[in-house]
Structures are given as C-alpha cells and as structure tokens.
Amino acid sequence: MKNTKRRYTMYPAWEYRQEIADINALSDAGWQLQRGGCFRSVFYWDETARYRYALDYNNHIDDPARYRDTFAEQGWEFVSDTFNGWHFFRKRYDPSLPPEEYEIYTDEASVQEMAGRWSRLGYTLGAIELAVTLLNGLMALRLPSIMGIATTLACLLLGVVILTGAWRIRHPHVAGKPRKSLRWCFTTVFAILALGLLFGSLRYGASSSSEYVYDPSAPPWTWEMSVPLPDFYTLHVQVDAPAAVTVGIVKEFDEDDAAADADYEWHAYIRSVHGSQLDERMTMFLLPGRYTVITQYDPDTPEGTIGKFHLEVN
User: Fold this and answer.
1) Distances 109 to 76, 78, 101, 170, 175 between C-alpha atoms, Å
2) What's the start-to-end Cα distance of the chain, in Å?
3) Cα separation of 276 and 270, whole Å?
4) What pLDDT score was predicted for residue 261?
5) Residues 6 or more apart whose Cβ sits within 8 Å of residue 169
6) Which string of DSSP letters, residue by residue, matches the chain?
7) Mean pLDDT across the chain, nearest whole number?
8) Which residues neighbour 111 within 8 Å (Cβ) at sequence distance 6 or greater?
C-alpha cells in the first residue's frame, strides 16, 4: 500500500465547509493532509492519528510567523497554504470534546469577518467578469464567431457563479447546503471555452489582392477557399474600379448532392455587393465545404477596364 496519495478536486471558495468535511472524513479513514491545494491535495497514511481540519482565508498577512503562532496558541497546527490566500490548520481529534472545540472561529463575528474577506474579492471578480462579458458581447455582435459567442457565454456564466458564491459564503444559513450545480458550472465554463478555442484555432483566414482586366470572353476573376468548421465569417471586400462590379460568394455542392450528369453544381449567391468603389464587409454563417468568391464587371463595361481588388476572410 502506498504511503501517500494525491487527490485532484476543486472546491469553490463558498464550499470551504464541504472541503473541511471531506478532509475530516479522509482523516478518519487514515489519510492525513500533508499539503492542501486549490486543485490538488497530498495525503499521507497514518491510521494511528485522527485530526479535525480548518480553513482560514487571509491574503494580506503582514507577519506570517505571528499569524501562525496565534492559531498555535489555540491548539491549531499549521499544515500548508495556497497561493491565493487559503490556510490549512488541524487539531488532534478527541471525541470527548464538544464540536465547538474544532471550530477555528467560535463567534459569528469572526466567521463573518473571514467570509467577508473573500466575498469582497468575489464581488470584485464577478463584476469584472460581467464587464468582460459586455465587451465580448459587443465584439461578437460586430464580428460574430463561435469563439466570440462561446467566450461571452462562458464569462457570463462565470460571473454569475462567482457573484452567487460571494453571496453564499456570507449567508450560509440562508443559502443552505452547498450546491454541486454551482461547482459543476466551472466544468461547463471550461467546456464552453474549450469549444470556442477549438473553433478559433481551426478558423479559416486568408486574403488575396489582384488587378483584374475586363475581358468579356474570359471567365470572371475568382478566389477559392475551404471552410473546415461551421462558423460566422466576415468577407471584407475592397474594390477600386472605374466601372461597377459585383462580388459574391458561392458554395460548391458535395458530390453526393450533385446532379448525376455533372461533377458539381453551385449554390446561388449567398450574398453579393455591387458598386465601383467598394469597401464593405459581408458577415455570414458558412457550413464546412469549398467556396468560391466571384468578382464580375457589369456586362456593359468597356473591354480592358482595370480594377484593383482586395479580398479578406476571417
């Protein structure tokens, strides 16, 4: 049997009481906390001892030695701390002593003071997340994308969860038992962000510039591209020409969908813009597949007309 083991789990700040209960249960089973962490805790095997653990939150300690000595005077042994201000303490368990002996704070004012230190941070973080949600939402409206929408939803959910947790840690009696749904919200946030990053990393982006000399007997100038994932894309069209032009984007049929007597067919124009001095953006939702951007002069354009084109998709 191994003498140490690592436990990977995450407890939101407002569930610190549940974390204490779980560590106490492990101590009763013979596993004693060696180092507590936000995501990973290390335990060692000692079935001869039983402890009761406690957590304190304080991220502004001027004299760490004096801070620990204060708890030592009350019988609490320091175990470890985390980078974000949580401190683990423990005390030998004696079943003959009342439960209050194993409360790190014995008066409600001290409990509220400790909870208040984190709740102030929680409210600040929650407000920041909502502000980021607003900014991401505005950017997603201007330049829609799956990644932008996913980031906006993740920030909104995270902000609501943190604000809810900041309230719950100050009002444990009103809030009741910890809700696993709040903890699982973090998993949902990470899943949404992972989805957004996946779409963002595989998102198609390219540009092309060219001069197009009009020849009525030649095919129109085209630019082919391949979209790997469904998403919102923006086609930026810039044209400087002495005659009117039309720029559109079309999608190639899959061979399974094509007519039996042709290798492929083309969808009708998804969208097109028309003019001689163009600087426009076409935002559209594109499914995976091959697309062609087609640039055409009006039929009555004089032969030899030269236009400059710049196309960019992202």
Assistant:
1) 20, 23, 17, 11, 18
2) 56
3) 20
4) 40
5) 13, 14, 16, 115, 118, 119, 122
6) --SEEEEE----GGGHHHHHHHHHHHHHTTEEEEE--SSEEEEEE-TT--EEEEEEE-S--S-HHHHHHHHHTTTPEEEEE-TTSEEEEEEE--TTS-GGGG-S--SHHHHHHHHHHHHHHHHHHHHHHHHHHHHHHHHHHHS--HHHHHHHHHHHHHHHHHHHHHHHHH-HHHH-SPPHHHHHHHHHHHHHHHHHHHHHHT---EEEEEEEE--TTSPPEEEEEEE-S-EEEEEEEEEEEEEEEEEEEEEBPPGGGS-TTSS--BPPPSEEEEEEEEEEEEEEEE-SEEEEEEEEE-TTSPTT-EEEEEEEE-
7) 83
8) 105
Picking from 104, 108, 21, 120, the residue whose alpha carbon sits closest to that of residue 55 is: 104
Pull the structure tokens for residue 197.
């990053």
Q: Is the pLDDT of residue 258 over 70?
A: no
What is the SS3 string spanning 194-232? HHHHHHHHCCCCEEEEEEEECCCCCCCEEEEEEECCCEE
Rounded average pLDDT over 209-227: 85
213 CB-near residues (< 8 Å, 6+ apart): 304, 305, 306
Average pLDDT over residues 82-107: 88
Mind listing the pLDDT tens digit for each residue in 284-308? Answer: 888 888 888 888 888 888 888 888 8
Residues 6+ apart with CB under 8 A from 8: 39, 40
Let me know: does 296 contact 187? Beta carbons within 8 Å: no
Rounded distance between C-alpha atoms, residue 122 and residue 209, angstroms = 50
**Angle formed by the axes of helices 108-142 and 146-170, nearest 10°:** 170
CB 96 within 8 A of CB 39: no
Burial 292-307 (b: 16+ CB within 10 A, else e): ebbbbbeeebeeebeb
